[in-house]
Amino acid sequence: MNKILPLAIFLAAPCFSLADWHTLTSADGSKKIEAEILRYDAKSGMVTLKLRSSRTITSPASAFSEDDQARIQEVGLATTMGRSLWVEFEDVENVVNEKRNPTNGYQTKELQNSYRIELRNNGEVPFEGLVAEYQIFYAGYIDPFRDNEKTDQVHRGKMEIPALKPREETDLATESVDLTSIKRLPLSQCSGGT
Protein backbone atom coordinates (compact mmCIF):
# COMPACT_ATOMS: atom_id res chain seq x y z
CA MET A 1 0.00 0.00 0.00
CA ASN A 2 1.24 3.49 -0.77
CA LYS A 3 0.07 6.62 0.92
CA ILE A 4 0.45 10.07 -0.59
CA LEU A 5 1.87 12.88 1.50
CA PRO A 6 2.23 16.60 0.84
CA LEU A 7 3.71 18.06 -2.31
CA ALA A 8 6.79 20.24 -2.23
CA ILE A 9 7.29 22.59 -5.16
CA PHE A 10 10.14 24.89 -6.03
CA LEU A 11 9.84 27.59 -8.66
CA ALA A 12 13.19 28.25 -10.20
CA ALA A 13 14.14 31.63 -11.53
CA PRO A 14 17.85 32.06 -12.10
CA CYS A 15 19.36 30.40 -9.02
CA PHE A 16 21.05 32.55 -6.40
CA SER A 17 20.44 33.65 -2.88
CA LEU A 18 19.05 37.10 -2.26
CA ALA A 19 21.43 37.44 0.67
CA ASP A 20 24.50 36.95 -1.55
CA TRP A 21 27.16 39.62 -1.52
CA HIS A 22 28.20 40.74 -5.00
CA THR A 23 31.15 42.76 -6.17
CA LEU A 24 29.56 45.33 -8.45
CA THR A 25 31.63 47.31 -10.94
CA SER A 26 30.79 50.80 -12.18
CA ALA A 27 29.81 51.19 -15.85
CA ASP A 28 33.19 52.73 -16.69
CA GLY A 29 35.05 50.03 -14.71
CA SER A 30 36.80 52.50 -12.40
CA LYS A 31 35.06 51.63 -9.10
CA LYS A 32 33.93 48.48 -7.30
CA ILE A 33 31.65 48.02 -4.33
CA GLU A 34 30.59 44.95 -2.41
CA ALA A 35 26.86 44.94 -1.79
CA GLU A 36 23.77 42.85 -1.32
CA ILE A 37 21.07 43.51 -3.94
CA LEU A 38 17.88 44.19 -1.99
CA ARG A 39 15.47 45.12 -4.79
CA TYR A 40 15.20 46.41 -8.32
CA ASP A 41 12.39 48.56 -9.72
CA ALA A 42 12.15 47.81 -13.45
CA LYS A 43 9.95 50.87 -14.10
CA SER A 44 12.36 53.41 -12.67
CA GLY A 45 15.54 51.41 -13.34
CA MET A 46 16.65 51.97 -9.74
CA VAL A 47 18.35 49.38 -7.56
CA THR A 48 18.56 49.36 -3.76
CA LEU A 49 21.79 47.98 -2.33
CA LYS A 50 22.98 47.18 1.18
CA LEU A 51 26.68 47.83 1.70
CA ARG A 52 28.94 45.86 4.08
CA SER A 53 28.74 48.83 6.45
CA SER A 54 24.95 48.12 6.67
CA ARG A 55 24.25 51.40 4.89
CA THR A 56 21.52 51.23 2.25
CA ILE A 57 21.82 53.15 -1.02
CA THR A 58 19.65 53.56 -4.10
CA SER A 59 21.24 53.99 -7.50
CA PRO A 60 20.36 53.73 -11.20
CA ALA A 61 21.15 50.20 -12.40
CA SER A 62 22.72 51.80 -15.48
CA ALA A 63 25.55 53.04 -13.22
CA PHE A 64 26.92 49.46 -13.19
CA SER A 65 28.52 47.18 -15.77
CA GLU A 66 26.33 45.26 -18.23
CA ASP A 67 26.99 41.97 -16.38
CA ASP A 68 26.00 43.57 -13.08
CA GLN A 69 22.87 45.07 -14.65
CA ALA A 70 21.83 41.58 -15.79
CA ARG A 71 22.41 40.22 -12.26
CA ILE A 72 20.42 43.11 -10.77
CA GLN A 73 17.50 42.35 -13.11
CA GLU A 74 17.60 38.64 -12.17
CA VAL A 75 17.41 39.52 -8.48
CA GLY A 76 14.58 41.91 -9.27
CA LEU A 77 12.66 39.16 -11.10
CA ALA A 78 13.12 36.70 -8.24
CA THR A 79 12.09 39.26 -5.63
CA THR A 80 9.05 40.33 -7.64
CA MET A 81 8.09 36.72 -8.30
CA GLY A 82 8.33 35.88 -4.60
CA ARG A 83 5.96 38.71 -3.75
CA SER A 84 3.61 38.50 -6.72
CA LEU A 85 3.15 34.87 -7.70
CA TRP A 86 -0.03 33.34 -6.27
CA VAL A 87 -0.03 29.54 -6.11
CA GLU A 88 -2.89 27.18 -5.22
CA PHE A 89 -2.65 23.38 -5.10
CA GLU A 90 -5.39 20.79 -5.43
CA ASP A 91 -4.86 17.09 -4.79
CA VAL A 92 -6.37 15.13 -7.69
CA GLU A 93 -7.23 11.50 -6.96
CA ASN A 94 -8.45 9.25 -9.76
CA VAL A 95 -9.76 5.83 -8.74
CA VAL A 96 -8.57 3.28 -11.31
CA ASN A 97 -9.93 0.17 -9.60
CA GLU A 98 -11.87 -0.49 -6.39
CA LYS A 99 -12.52 -3.84 -4.66
CA ARG A 100 -14.48 -4.54 -1.50
CA ASN A 101 -13.88 -7.83 0.24
CA PRO A 102 -16.48 -8.37 2.98
CA THR A 103 -14.84 -11.69 3.89
CA ASN A 104 -11.56 -10.17 5.09
CA GLY A 105 -13.11 -6.77 5.89
CA TYR A 106 -11.00 -4.56 3.62
CA GLN A 107 -11.54 -2.18 0.73
CA THR A 108 -8.68 -1.83 -1.79
CA LYS A 109 -8.42 1.08 -4.23
CA GLU A 110 -5.87 1.53 -6.99
CA LEU A 111 -5.34 5.26 -7.45
CA GLN A 112 -3.51 7.73 -9.64
CA ASN A 113 -2.69 10.79 -7.60
CA SER A 114 -1.41 14.11 -8.90
CA TYR A 115 -1.64 17.79 -8.09
CA ARG A 116 -3.32 20.53 -10.08
CA ILE A 117 -1.45 23.80 -9.64
CA GLU A 118 -3.05 27.16 -10.35
CA LEU A 119 -0.62 30.05 -10.80
CA ARG A 120 -1.46 33.75 -11.08
CA ASN A 121 0.84 36.70 -11.69
CA ASN A 122 -0.45 39.35 -9.28
CA GLY A 123 2.44 41.67 -10.09
CA GLU A 124 3.10 44.31 -12.69
CA VAL A 125 6.01 42.56 -14.44
CA PRO A 126 5.65 39.57 -16.79
CA PHE A 127 7.23 36.27 -15.69
CA GLU A 128 9.14 34.34 -18.32
CA GLY A 129 11.53 31.41 -18.29
CA LEU A 130 10.31 29.91 -15.01
CA VAL A 131 10.63 26.20 -14.27
CA ALA A 132 8.76 24.42 -11.46
CA GLU A 133 10.59 21.51 -9.89
CA TYR A 134 8.40 19.43 -7.61
CA GLN A 135 8.59 16.50 -5.24
CA ILE A 136 5.62 14.35 -4.23
CA PHE A 137 6.27 12.44 -1.02
CA TYR A 138 4.51 9.16 -0.28
CA ALA A 139 5.09 6.01 1.75
CA GLY A 140 5.07 2.35 0.81
CA TYR A 141 4.15 -0.17 3.48
CA ILE A 142 5.64 -3.65 3.58
CA ASP A 143 2.68 -4.98 5.60
CA PRO A 144 -0.21 -2.55 5.11
CA PHE A 145 -2.32 -4.28 7.75
CA ARG A 146 0.16 -3.40 10.51
CA ASP A 147 1.52 -0.12 9.09
CA ASN A 148 4.80 -0.74 10.89
CA GLU A 149 7.53 -0.96 8.33
CA LYS A 150 7.31 1.67 5.65
CA THR A 151 9.64 3.00 3.01
CA ASP A 152 9.48 6.69 2.25
CA GLN A 153 9.28 7.42 -1.46
CA VAL A 154 9.73 10.59 -3.50
CA HIS A 155 8.52 11.24 -7.03
CA ARG A 156 10.46 14.11 -8.63
CA GLY A 157 9.47 16.05 -11.72
CA LYS A 158 9.74 19.40 -13.41
CA MET A 159 7.67 21.48 -15.77
CA GLU A 160 8.18 24.69 -17.66
CA ILE A 161 5.76 27.44 -16.75
CA PRO A 162 4.35 29.39 -19.70
CA ALA A 163 5.00 33.13 -19.73
CA LEU A 164 2.61 34.93 -17.39
CA LYS A 165 1.66 38.53 -18.09
CA PRO A 166 0.45 40.68 -15.19
CA ARG A 167 -2.95 39.50 -13.89
CA GLU A 168 -2.75 36.36 -16.05
CA GLU A 169 -3.17 32.86 -14.65
CA THR A 170 -2.52 29.33 -15.82
CA ASP A 171 -3.22 25.77 -14.68
CA LEU A 172 -0.55 23.08 -14.57
CA ALA A 173 -0.56 19.45 -13.45
CA THR A 174 2.14 17.22 -12.04
CA GLU A 175 2.75 13.72 -13.28
CA SER A 176 0.61 11.02 -11.66
CA VAL A 177 1.83 8.68 -8.94
CA ASP A 178 0.29 5.19 -8.81
CA LEU A 179 -0.91 4.38 -5.30
CA THR A 180 -2.88 1.66 -3.52
CA SER A 181 -5.16 2.44 -0.60
CA ILE A 182 -6.30 -0.30 1.79
CA LYS A 183 -8.94 0.55 4.40
CA ARG A 184 -11.00 -1.47 6.86
CA LEU A 185 -14.67 -1.73 5.99
CA PRO A 186 -17.25 -0.86 8.64
CA LEU A 187 -18.42 -3.98 10.52
CA SER A 188 -21.88 -3.60 8.96
CA GLN A 189 -20.33 -4.25 5.53
CA CYS A 190 -18.28 -7.30 6.56
CA SER A 191 -19.41 -10.95 6.37
CA GLY A 192 -20.98 -11.79 9.68
CA GLY A 193 -20.79 -8.15 10.83
CA THR A 194 -23.57 -6.42 12.68
Tell me the layout of helices and strands:
Blueprint: E1 2-12, E2 21-25, E3 32-41, E4 46-51, E5 56-60, H1 66-84, E6 85-101, E7 106-121, E8 131-141, E9 150-160, E10 169-173, E11 177-184
Antiparallel strand pairs: 1-8, 2-3, 3-4, 4-5, 6-7, 7-10, 7-11, 8-9
What features would you describe in this structure?
The strands form 3 sheets. The protein has a 4-stranded antiparallel sheet. Strands 6, 7, 10 and 11 form a 4-stranded antiparallel sheet that branches. A 3-stranded antiparallel sheet has the order 1-8-9, with no helix packed on it. The protein has 194 residues and is mostly beta strands. It folds into 2 domains: 2-13 and 85-189, no CATH class; 21-84, SLA1 homology domain 1 (SH3 type barrels, Roll), CATH 2.30.30. The protein contains 1 helix and 11 strands; from the N terminus they run βββββαββββββ. Residues 1-7 and 11-18 have low confidence and may be disordered.
Biggest sheet strand order reads: 2-3-4-5
Cα gyration radius (Å)? 25 Å
- Helical segment count: 1
Poorly predicted segments: 1-7, 11-18
Q: What's the story with the biggest beta sheet? A: 4 strands, antiparallel
Q: In sequence order, what are the helices and strands, one letter per element?
A: EEEEEHEEEEEE
Mean pLDDT: 81
Outline type: elongated
How much of the sequence lies in strands comes to over 45%
The tally of strands reads 11
What is the helix content?
under 10%
User: What is the terminal-to-terminal distance?
Assistant: 28 Å
Structural class estimated from helices and strands: mainly beta
* Tally of separate domains: 2
